[in-house]
Design a protein that fits this description.
Layout: H1 2-25, H2 31-47, H3 51-58, H4 61-67, H5 74-82, E1 89-98, E2 101-110, E3 113-125, E4 128-133
Length: 136
C-alpha cells in the first residue's frame, strides 16, 4: 500500500514539475528584446524601402504626425526623405527601457554617407514598441 501511495505521488509530482518548468520558460520576451525586435524591423523596412510597414507597424503615431506635417501622406513623405538613401545598414547597441519608453543606441551607415551613432527613442503604443524619434 505504501508503494501505491508513493507511485501516485510520483505520478502527480512529475507532471506538476514539468508544468512549473514550462511556465518558467514561457514568460515571453522581455521589453528589451521586444525593443530590439522593433529596431531591427525598422532597419529592415528602411533598407527594403517598405514605407507601408514603417507607417503601419513600426513608427509611433507621434512620429507619423511629424513626418506628415509637410502635407504628404506618411508613405510618400518617407519616400521623399529616404528614397535616395542607398544600402542603409543599422547596427543595434544598448537598449534601455523605462516603463513605456525606451531608447536604443544604433550605428547607421549608407552608401556615400559617413557612419553615425544615434539614439532611437521608442514608446509603447497599444502594447507594441514603436519608433518615436529617429535621433535624440
Amino acid at each position: 500500500m505504501l508503494r501505491a501511495v508513493r507511485r501516485r505521488c510520483i505520478a502527480l509530482a512529475v507532471p506538476a514539475a514539468m508544468l512549473a518548468l514550462a511556465a518558467c520558460g514561457s514568460g515571453g520576451p522581455t521589453d528589451e528584446q521586444l525593443v530590439a525586435r522593433a529596431v531591427t524591423a525598422f532597419g529592415r523596412a528602411t533598407a527594403d524601402k517598405d514605407y507601408r510597414a514603417l507607417c503601419a507597424r513600426i513608427l509611433a503615431p507621434s512620429l507619423i504626425e511629424q513626418v506628415t506635417s509637410i502635407g504628404l501622406p506618411c508613405e510618400k513623405a518617407l519616400e521623399r526623405g529616404l528614397g535616395g538613401v542607398r544600402s542603409p545598414r543599422l547596427t543595434l547597441g544598448a537598449v534601455t527601457v523605462d516603463g513605456d519608453r525606451a531608447t536604443a543606441e544604433v550605428r547607421t551607415a549608407a552608401a556615400n554617407q559617413a557612419p553615425s551613432r544615434d539614439t532611437l527613442r521608442l514608446e509603447k503604443v497599444r502594447g507594441a514598441w514603436r519608433v518615436a524619434s529617429l535621433a535624440q
